[in-house]
Each structure stands twice: as structure tokens, then as C-alpha cells.
């Protein structure tokens, strides 16, 4: 079918909204009419080249929610036309060694996420200007329609608003799981969250719901620090350096049991700053993405060893989208997880570049694209 989508034709270019052609679903695939798409910082990493792509053009978008409109043959029996679904930015086959070991966020299918060829048959599902298009994470939610493999699809409660549902495809489980799955925050602990965007605010809520006694939010943006207090932060600071002495005073020198780095772009010197805030036998979780070609990390290895600290990487919150997405949405329905206030602004697809400018200017916790009948 012919529709439109936001295409990137090269590094440091703006998104171009233009006509695309989306293929029908083949074996194991579904076609989805998109309702909303989240505007995650990870898509901006493609723009800057921090996440290198094998070629162009690229279709953006890896957070989204919509309704199934077509099913290809050999799809799971629990999926049907009319189902409300979200897109998981990492597919989960359930059979590879990582999935079998319980690490579905590390599914072997993830090896091909940035290559563009469909899981089902190795061909392309999107064309623009007569060229094959690489969809971000084999999804491409910056279009009103998409054809994807069923391993990237998670069925959800149809009463959940699409505006918040799209967030549980990436940002919310990544942040929330950073606190709950990877850092394993325990009641009474002191937790530091550095970087208060969509992922950081979700990590903050995960720490609060896990029973942390002190939740420290760090961000240079005053408005984000103010918002963090509404979501449960007990202390806020403009930088990790500014938090050192107040945190030492507040914890009688023990510092934080858990520190989670969720800034929009990771730099190697942030690790040492985070470890200074991390107490004895504490854990530093690195969720933020850095440049793929950046290989230097700064840390004091003596203090790392002598104070028995741990540094952990984190992708997708270390969880399982099929289990975590319904649970997170259940918390939302119960009023325990605030997703409504995380959506700062809605944009049309044609306003996508303005949306990313607002993100970079620190005006949004999360911006979303809202599709309407005019798009379908």
C-alpha cells in the first residue's frame, strides 16, 4: 500500500515526510494501522551518526501503538485483526539461547535490527523513491501503517489510551526495568537517577515503586527537575558534581546503593562521576546510549575494586516485553504508574522535526506523534 513516512536520507539531515510503499504481510507477519508513535532519543542517534547505519534511506520510529489490520499466514493464534498492540523494539523469538535463559531483551533476532531485512524472508518491507528502506529496529513507527514480524508485537488491553500505550514499547520498560530488573532497587535504598527524560522519569518511578527512601534526580534542566519532584524525587540537583556533598550529608557518608545513568547521550567520563555517587558494594547501571565508535570510559579502578562496586550495562530494562508491558499498563490502570504526565506534547507526522527540536531543547519528557483519519 502507498502511505507516507518520515525518512532519513543521510547523517545530520532532517526527517523527510514523503510517500512510501509498505508491503503486505507474509508468513509470520502482521500489518498495523498506527495510532501513536513515541519520539525517542535513540532515533536522533541515527540522525547524528552516533548509531551508524549500513546505508540509507532509513525509516525512523521504534515506539508505537496501533491496531492490527491484516494477518499473514502462520501467525500465533492469540493475534487477530482488531487487536490493540504495541511494538517491542527488540523482537523475542522465545527459542534462542538468550530467550531460553530468560534474557529476552537479548534475543538473537536483535542482531539484525539495524540491517533492514525482514525476519520472515530477508527482504525489505518499505520502499521510497524506488529504493529499499531500512526501518528502525525492523519497525518504522514514523508511518501510519507498518508491516512487522509477530515477534515484535505485544497485544495489550484495548482500554489503554494509545497515547500512553506507545511508551511501553521502549522508554518506560527501559527506564523502569533499569531500577527494578537491573539495579534491583530494594526498600529503603538511596537511588540516583542522572538524566530525566522519558527513560529517566520511568527509572525514577521504578525506584519509587520499589520502596527507595531517597530518590535523587539529576538534570541540568530546571523544568525537568521540577517535574521529577512531581513523580516522586526527594532531592534534585543540576549535575552529578553538585550532588556529591549533599548526598554525602544526606546518607552520613554512605552515598547511594544504586546509581542509574539515563541521560540522552552517554559519555565515558560520566561513569567515573556516577561511581563517585555510588557507595560501598553499590551498583552503577549504564542505560544511556553513547556513540558506537566511542571506546573510552573513565573510572578509578582502585576504588572500583577496593569498594567492591559494580558497573552494569542495561538494554530494554533487562526485561521481557511480553510480560513487562502488560504489567506496566496494569500499574498505570491502578493509578500507580504515571504515564499521562510523561506525554508532554503531541505532534503530527509533518511536525516531527519540530518535535525533535523540542526534545533537544529540553521542553519534553516525551513527545509523541498522533495519527488521525487524515493520515490513514
From TrEMBL:
GO terms for biological process: formaldehyde catabolic process. Residues 10-369 form the Enoyl reductase (ER) domain. Its EC number is 1.1.1.1. InterPro entries: ADH-like_C, ADH-like_N, ADH_Zn_actinomycetes, ADH_Zn_CS, ER, GroES-like_sf, NAD(P)-bd_dom_sf. It holds the Pfam family ADH_N. GO terms for molecular function: alcohol dehydrogenase (NAD+) activity; S-(hydroxymethyl)glutathione dehydrogenase [NAD(P)+] activity; zinc ion binding. Keywords: Metal-binding, NAD, Oxidoreductase, Zinc. Coiled coil: none annotated. It catalyses: a secondary alcohol + NAD(+) = a ketone + NADH + H(+); a primary alcohol + NAD(+) = an aldehyde + NADH + H(+). Belongs to the zinc-containing alcohol dehydrogenase family. This is alcohol dehydrogenase.
